[in-house]
Amino acid sequence: MDIQKETIPKIHENVKARKEQFGLLLVSKRTPILALNDDSRVIWECFDGVSTVEEIASRLKEEMEEDLEQTIETVKCFVESCYDLGLIEI
Q1: Which long-range contacts (CB under 8 A, 24 or more apart) does 45-53 make?
Q2: What is the dihedral sign for C-alpha 63, 73, 29, 34?
């Protein structure tokens, strides 16, 4: 899948998430339990079905300590991985 700045990720309805001390645990019927670190957790929590990849990256720019273009690339890679695992819809 070719993820663009305009892509709008939305968490698949069958995915459950639970906050943990290290970040987040994700559970779905399609994948084993996945553990996300704090950086990935922050991105995951922005998957609201309304915000674009670029909007998510703009919000995260300060936390990621990267420039906007690099943050966009980081978010795009994470979105693609989540999509490939069936955790999100686009």
Answers
A1: 47/9, 47/10, 47/11, 47/82, 47/88, 48/10, 49/8, 49/9, 49/10, 49/11, 50/8, 51/8, 52/5, 52/6, 52/7, 52/8, 53/3, 53/4, 53/5, 53/6, 53/7, 53/8, 53/9, 53/79
A2: negative
pTM across the whole model: 0.90
Q: Which residues contact 90 (CB under 8 A, 6 or more apart)?
A: 1, 3, 7, 8, 9, 10, 79, 83
- Give me 70's structure tokens: 């690099």
| pLDDT tens profile 1-52 | 899 999 999 999 999 999 999 899 999 988 889 999 988 999 999 999 999 9
